[in-house]
Specification:
Blueprint: H1 2-22, H2 30-55
Helix pairs in contact: 1-2
Length: about 55
């Protein structure tokens, strides 16, 4: 099930990166998207680390 969660997390990061590319540099929601992207990347890395740990257990 971790693989499914990782996949979803990766897709969320991709979607947020696309949204960020589309936004104008001075768009008011840019800060919110950047914050969501930061959290999504952290979650993705947390899941990857869990998978790595499970691989060696």
């Amino acid at each position: 099930m971790l693989a499914v969660e990782l996949y979803r997390s990766m897709k969320q990061v991709e979607e947020l990166e696309k949204r960020l590319e589309i936004l104008a540099p001075d768009a008011p929601e840019k800060g919110q998207v950047l914050d969501e992207l930061r959290r999504a990347k952290a979650e993705r890395e947390r899941i990857r680390a869990m998978m790595e740990g499970a691989k060696y257990s």
